[in-house]
Amino acid sequence: MTEAAAPSTPGRAIRSPALASHFHDLRQQHAAADLGLWIFLATEILFFGGLFAAYLVYAVLYPDGFLDAAAETEIVIGTINTALLLTSGLTAALAVKAAGAGMRRSVTMLIAVTIGLGLVFLGAKGYEYWLDLDHHLYPTSPEFPLAAPPAKLFWSLYWTMTGLHAIHILVGLGTWGIILFQTVRRSFSLTDNSRIRIAGLYWGFVDLMWLFIWPLLYLMGRAT
Amino acid sequence: MSDIPYRDVDVDGEKPGGRLMEESYLGERFSIWSWLTTTDHKRIGILYLISTTLFFFIGGAAATMIRLELFTPAGDLLTDDGYNKVFTLHGVVMVWFFLVPVIPSVLGNFLVPLMIGAKDLAFPRLNLLSWYLNILGGTFAVWAMLSGGVDTGWTFYTPYSTAFANTHVSLTAIGVFISGFSTIATGVNMIVTVHTMRPPGMGWFRMPLFVWAIYATSLIMLLSTPVLAMVLTLLVTERLLGLGIFDPNRGGDPILFQHLFWFYSHPAVYIMILPGMGVVTEVITCFSRRRVFGYAAMVYALLAIAVIGFFVWGHHMFTSGQSMYASLTFSFLSFIVAVPSAIKVFNWIATMYRGQITFEASMLYAMGFVGLFTMGGLTGLFLASVPVDLHLHDTYFVVAHFHYIMVGGMVSAFFAGLHFWWPKITGRLYPETAAQIAALLMFFGFNLTFFPQYILGNIGMPRRYHAYPDAFQVWHVLSSAGAVILAAAYLMPLGYLVWSLIWGKRAPSNPWRASGLEWQTGSPPPKHNFLANPKIEGSVYDYHPAQQPRREPSDD
Amino acid sequence: MGEVELVLPAATSAAVSTDGKLVGLLVISGLITLLVASLLGLFAVRFRRGSKAGRSRLPNWFSRELETVWTLATVGLFVAIFAWAASQDFALAVPPARSMEIHVVGKQWMWKAEHPGGQREINELHVPAGETIELVLNSQDVIHSFYVPAFRLKQDVVPGHTTRMRFHTEKTGTYRLFCAEYCGTQHSAMIGRVVVMAKEDYADWLTRQPEGDDLEEDGKKLFVSKGCAGCHYGSSQVRAPRLAGVYGSKVPLSDGRVVTADDDYVRDSILQPKRDVVAGFAPIMPSFAGALTEGELVSLTAYIRSLAVTETAR
Amino acid sequence: MSRATQHGRDGNRPAADRRSLLPPLMPELGVFLALFALTATSVLVAFWSALGGLAILACLAIALVMAALVMTFFMHLRSAMAVMMLAGLAGVVWLAILFGLTMADYLTRPGDLGASMQTPVKAETKAEAAN
Q1: What's the rounded Cα separation, in Å, for the pair C20 and C152?
Q2: Which segments of chain C does DSSP mark as H helices, in order?
């Protein structure tokens, strides 16, 4: 990627206050930021991958136990949440696009909608947790309703997967919140700064993980 | 001992950097606060040097207690619990707070931008954050130790760690988890820097092998550490929240923990050794005055180790009840991953062939590295073959094997690098004779400590034993005696290096007349690394006859 | 005391062949180490700065060829060692015609063994020489590892799994037994000895053991005392499958699968009765997990196994 | 930072365009509709396909397609540099290594996998301990 460092960039970019002193030009700086985040996302894939590996092993060891246990999850809430996340994925992608075009009003609105959808997601998740606890679907609950031991494995994975995903949503919402604040304050250049693109990438990843968590936890064991 | 060449000779066209102390990264606006908030990769390298040294001596103190306890067969110095906590502390601190960060974060941080001719790493603030995370993680681990310790061994095997240990397992695991973020931050920084920050002229195959080594290491860090993070998360949720997925009472499989754990921890061994290989390549080429033998082969070997290293983790599990077919596959792949390591050893030796070899302390360390790494690597073959491993697994043979790699290899390489770049880092020359004595003492002490452990393993002494049968005592006494020498040898550099900071001679910008870009700037370098763009010309390791007097002018 | 030990006795056939591999590897790696060390030493002396040795430049093709040669040589050598070592695995994997089963339970911090005749011992294991013996290993708590250096064998004992360790004893003697997998506070006290005795001595030893009921007898008593007989016996009220002749047969399950009733199946049916319910029966049996010890389970299984033998053609 | 400099830097588009409420909606909106359709398909497959317990495999296949769409369009992998695709790919390949070699153990164990797992017995009577 030496090309990125080639000294053939227009002077406009070099003068930008968004350019850090150790970079040659904005193109190099943006390439570094994007690559950095993609690499980070690769590590995130492997982070969740450890959990998916555990799921795979136990689903192969105890296929019936897992089908039975998965039938107890709240599929309606899960599916609504899928729709919410996909919609927020759309608004986030559009926000990135708008930022590239310097459309500040549009960026502000799209980020606000993204945050709103994320908050609704968390709200639904919270309600779902409340229902789960009400049904004693917590592995240490003395009244855990499912008899086969592997059901507790499934529900441990359920809480861990959705919990870690929710933490990622929280981090994403925090990031969006700060960026929204900065956008409204006009404290950074939409086009020269890569933070909206970075946040958009991260949010896309959070979407992506849910796309796999959703079938594994909610769509399992529904066939009649 | 040997005459030290080129001490007072500087490169042609000396850059103005080294002359003015106030321009250097060290002297500029000195205050504690300016150091704690610095984003300069060189200063962060120094911060890491201080913290890893601290952790090294904490881990070393634990090692000393282990060796003292094992002096006699009966468990007399420590209680059994105490002993278990001490070896756990030794493992946790040495692995995660010394070996993993030491070369990438100290030397890598300091040198990678200098070596490729960049002003800084791509993400300077992330770099600083990584140090704070490392310190925070280490604080958790040390806090766990001070508030009663942890006794699971650094491997945290379930179900002992989840359901039976009453010690501070979660606290320690959280500490290691946090340090994992630090590792990932460093890895991201290094990879992005190498990809995007090289100036024109610094092509991929123009990079010094140290940079390649850090690049390969970073790949492993990034691809393995997240799985460790997950397995520790699962461990902690099982302990604290009852979300057990390794619990046999629920049909959980403790072997799954081992799979996930070793998916990280075997590649982590290469995180610990690859940077050492990079350092040794720089040192051997410099003091042999030779271009490295087989540059391309060295690069491919590094990358091959990084990739194949992920396919061999099951050789830690031959006795666990893992399927025989899986064991044989892992065994085969483990033999294959030894090939690129062997290639590197041959290349280092071939680099010395027809060289102009001098024996500065770094060269002594580097030669020690080649020998000890060879022994550590070859004994790895014993453990890679299934029937022999059934006997030697979890014995002192394993302990000796990985200490040959980690201590004989990695620690030697770190000292080689520390001495080699000390003049660049501090602007001071260290006393050569003292350093040479320390290097030899370390080599001797190391072998006396760990060679008897091969024999102990072979006669059946299991790991992590607090008391042992009398028949093993002779070898334990030898080992403990070696440890005393080793401890003294480790204290020596602490003394003379600190001494050199105050009384050492000022270093010229290129005391070794080495070829890397880092030697084209002042010692210590100025804040922004280079006052003028460094000259990237010729090939890497261009140890040219014109730069040095040689007897045969026909050479090269 | 304090004698120097350098060579381990080889008490099993595996030990003899492992020793072969070990010595072979020692010779190979010794030679390579010697080669590396002497080249390092030789070059360091011969090409020290200012020495008279010739230093003309090597042609490029030479270094390429050399690189290829040693790469291929290393690959060849390592693959050969692998194949040689792996051949032993394949040999060990073939189950012997007949073997003597001894149940061993590892728990913090002791080894408990139970012989086929019901004789029990703790931290000791007596076995006859010249026999193929299969240890059936279970753990009651954490992972342990059954390690007899003189056998050159160790096998982890993992809770949740039944692991097996098979060996053919060759040499009589008393050998050390260790727990090789770290298991907690008194890990280093989880040691004992394995005594390999001549067959006659072993038979003699067995008779001298205190009155241990044999496994089947033990199991029969448990079958009554733990309440199994209440349902699984002919006159009982609750509908539950009879167990005579079940062992070793194919059992149709309520979900359509057919399984073979072996040790693991019996064990699981006791501990997790709802998992594999026999066709035609309601899943009403309670789990006995926690109500039975590992030893009691072994006895119960042995009793159920014996029912198969008595009922079918003997 | 002054408002004037900011605006100067916010691209070369005319001011009116920059003030419009939304950026061009295509192709993101189209992709979004496709994702919704796939979500619905996934639910249908999960409930009413003839695959029984294996329906989850079909759902995961659909999830893969959806993930590819999200990466390509929402995460702009389309216009990213090759090395970034490589980074993402590395994550997936290494995941395959983790899954593959772990399952290489579990799938080649002798006997029925799930049935060979047992519940260890924790409680032990005093008498047994004393024995």
Answers
A1: 12
A2: 13-46, 60-93, 199-208, 215-225, 228-232, 263-271, 294-311
Is residue B274, in this structure, part of any structural domain at all? yes
Question: What topology is assigned to C215-311 in CATH?
Answer: Cytochrome Bc1 Complex; Chain D, domain 2 (1.10.760)
* Total number of domains in chain B: 1
Specify the pairing of strand C132-139 against strand C100-107. parallel
Specify the CATH number for the domain of residue A154.
1.20.120.80
Would you call C27 an interface residue with chain B, using a CB distance cutoff of 8 Å?
A: no
Are residues A148 and C272, on separate chains, in Cβ contact within 8 Å? yes
Residue C168: φ, ψ to 5° = -115, 115
Confidence of residue C234 (pLDDT cuts 50, 70, 90): low
Query: Does B385 contact C86 at a Cβ distance shorter than 8 Å?
Result: yes
Domain boundaries, chain C: 13-46+57-93, 100-208, 215-311
How far is the alpha carbon of A14 from chain B, nearest alpha carbon, in Å? 16
Q: Give D-chain residues touching A83 at CB under 8 angstroms.
A: 36, 39
| B18 is a domain residue | no
User: Can you tell me the mean pLDDT for B416-441?
Assistant: 95
* Residue B225 contacts A where some CB pair is shorter than 8 Å: yes
B319 to chain D, any CB pair closer than 8 A? The answer is no
Element (H, E) at C260: strand C258-260
Alpha helices in A4-149 (DSSP H): 11-14, 26-61, 63-70, 75-100, 104-134
Assess: ipTM above 0.90: no
Domain C100-208 bears CATH identifier 2.60.40.420: yes
Interface probe with B: pick from D81, D94, D105, D109, most Cβ of B within 10 Å:
D105
Does the beta-carbon distance from B259 to D114 stay under 8 Å? no
Task: Establish if A4 belongs to a structural domain.
Answer: no
- Give the 3-state DSSP-derived string for B195-259, with helices as H, strands as E and coil as C: HHCCCCCCCHHHCCHHHHHHHHHHHHHHHHHHHHHHHHHHHHHHHHHCCCCCCHHHCCCHHHHHH
Residues of B numbered 454-493 whose beta carbons fall under 8 angstroms of chain A's beta carbons: which are they?
none
- Are residues A46 and B253, on separate chains, in Cβ contact within 8 Å? no
Give Dmax (Cα) for chain B: 76
Q: CA of A126 to nearest chain D CA: how many angstroms apart?
A: 22
- D117–C161 CB contact, under 8 Å: yes
C80 vs B: CB within 8 A: no
Asked whether residue B21 carries a pLDDT value surpassing 50, the answer given is no
Q: How far is D130 from chain B (nearest CA, A)?
A: 21
Question: A148 and C274 in contact by Cβ < 8 A?
Answer: yes
Whole-number Å distance between alpha carbons of C275 and C297: 18
pLDDT of residue C308: 66
List of chain A residues with pLDDT < 50: 1-13
Strands C124-128 and C192-197: parallel
Containing structural domain, residue B253: 28-508
Q: What is the pLDDT of residue C93?
A: 64
Assess C276–D contact: CB distance below 8 Å, yes or no.
yes
Q: What is the pLDDT of residue C186?
A: 92
Interface contact D117-C291, CB threshold 8 A: no
Query: What pLDDT score was predicted for residue C312?
Result: 39
Residues of D in contact with B326 (CB under 8 A): 101, 104-105, 108
Q: Is residue A17 in a domain?
A: no
Tell if the CB–CB gap between D114 and A62 is shorter than 8 Å: yes
CATH number at residue B223: 1.20.210.10
> Is the pTM above the cut of 0.95?
no
Counting the structural domains of chain A, the total is 1
Q: Which of A163-177, B288-302, B335-349, D78-92 has the lowest mean pLDDT?
A: D78-92
Contact status, residue B44 vs residue B106, Cβ threshold 8 Å? no
